[in-house]
Specification:
Number of strands: 4
Strand content: 5-15%
Keywords: Aspartyl protease, Cell membrane, Hydrolase, Membrane, Protease, Transmembrane, Transmembrane helix
Mean pLDDT: 90
GO molecular function, one term: aspartic-type endopeptidase activity
Number of domains: 1
Low-confidence stretches: none
Function: This protein specifically catalyzes the removal of signal peptides from prolipoproteins.
Radius of gyration: 16 Å
Membrane topology: Multi-pass membrane protein
Order of helices and strands: HEEHHHEEH
EC number: 3.4.23.36
Number of helices: 5
């Protein structure tokens, strides 16, 4: 079990550190890039995806923190799932924890990638991409097994 948790936490910490480092560059360096496809511009999302639930204000960060701790507790009980998907779950929860940390430090999630080629998409960040990537990898592994 220690090896599984070790693998989980390596991915968790690496994703969280990379995400926070990128966000540090945007919040302290004033990075801003505009192009035909993507703009890199600093914004703070007070809600969740597409700014939903922003009305929850300060309660949102507590709710999300409880969810992350609860999911981790569930995974400790579901050792087979944690063993099978330890890297992917570490990526997902590390990215989620990084976004929650933003809420405590900055009052909202630090977002900076604005895709606007062909359509305007929500502003997002590295952690958001990692959450989606982790889910896609889990789904692909489940489909390939079948």
């Amino acid at each position: 079990m220690l090896r599984i948790l070790g693998k989980f936490f390596i991915f968790f910490i690496c994703i969280m550190c990379v995400d926070q480092a990128i966000k540090y560059l945007f919040t302290h360096g004033g990075l801003s890039v505009k192009s035909e496809w993507i703009d890199l511009v600093l914004t703070y999302n007070r809600g969740v995806a597409f700014s939903m639930f922003a009305f929850l204000g300060e309660y949102l960060k507590i709710i999300q923190l409880v969810l992350i701790v609860g999911i981790f507790g569930y995974l400790i009980g579901e050792r087979a799932m944690l063993a099978r998907f330890s890297a992917e779950l570490g990526i997902i929860l590390g990215a989620g924890a990084s976004n929650v940390l933003d809420r405590f430090i900055h009052g909202g999630v630090v977002d900076y990638v604005f895709w606007h080629k062909w359509f305007n998409f929500a502003v997002f960040n590295f952690a958001d991409v990692m959450i989606n990537l982790g889910v896609v990898i889990i789904l692909l592994r489940l489909l390939i097994k079948k």
